[in-house]
Design goal:
Blueprint (H helix, E strand, L loop, with lengths): L1 H7 L2 H15 L1 H18 L1 H4 L31 H36 L1 H16 L2 H12 L3 H27 L3 H8 L4 H37 L11 H8 L8 H28 L1 H7 L1
Helix pairs in contact: 2-3, 3-5, 3-12, 5-6, 5-8, 5-10, 5-12, 6-8, 7-8, 8-10, 10-11, 10-12, 11-12
Amino acid sequence: MTTLSTAAAPATPNLLARGWTFTRRNPTLVVGGAILALLGAMAIFAPLITRYDPIALDVVNRLKGPTADHPFGTDMMGRDIFSRVIYGSRVSLMVGLSVAAVATAIGLAIGLAAGLVRWVDVVVMRVMDGLMAIPSVLLAIAFMALAGSSIRNIIIAITIPEIPRVSRLVRGIVMSVREQPFVEAAVAAGAKDLPLLTRHILPTTINPLIVQATYIAASSIISEAYLSFLGAGTPPEIPSWGNIVAEGRSLFTVAPGAVLFPSIFLAVTVLAVNIMGDGLRDRLDPQMQRGLR
């Protein structure tokens, strides 16, 4: 028992030292990840953080300033702004993560096919170019007007303009890697298409895709907010930062909290995602890591 205790004693200081070293080398990654983890915890445990229903009306207490019961005040319907902002983070984070995952997966498949098969490159990439020529805002608004307001349709509307960007990134990487000597050597040695793809080409796309996915998530959160602000996003009964600001903008001088607080949360979330993306880029860049050692 004494031997085990003695051997386990240095574990905690060693773990703390490793954690401090990682933080010192990757401060942006740690800061951005910590902020996002906090926002994610608030979204998950929203019912425990606030005791008010975000859609419950209380016209007697409408347009109240910040109080102990309502730290962000109330809106024109008497709804608790703090509760609506916390629940609204669920929509923003879900849309951001979903769009990043779906756009990255579909764009990866299209980019790999375009980089390896010539006719796919000629046909499919021209379609991707056509999609990129359409302003993403107009494309999303048009889709929402046809499909109707729902979170699922928002995810689809924002995902469609992001797919061409991912596919072009992957296509460029694949076409560059195909010319590398180690790939040419594998082809000369008789490597089949599938092993060549999984062992040599696909691993080179992972790091850039991870970084790109973080920027897609940040862009998607903003896109969801302005779609909801314009009335083409989430339905009114689902609180999101965009429609909270849209409802409160006409009464900004009376109840500024309905505009300021969701805007602050939106800005902090997007900033955290971008900071984490920068940290991931530095972390996954071998040259940057050699410079930190």
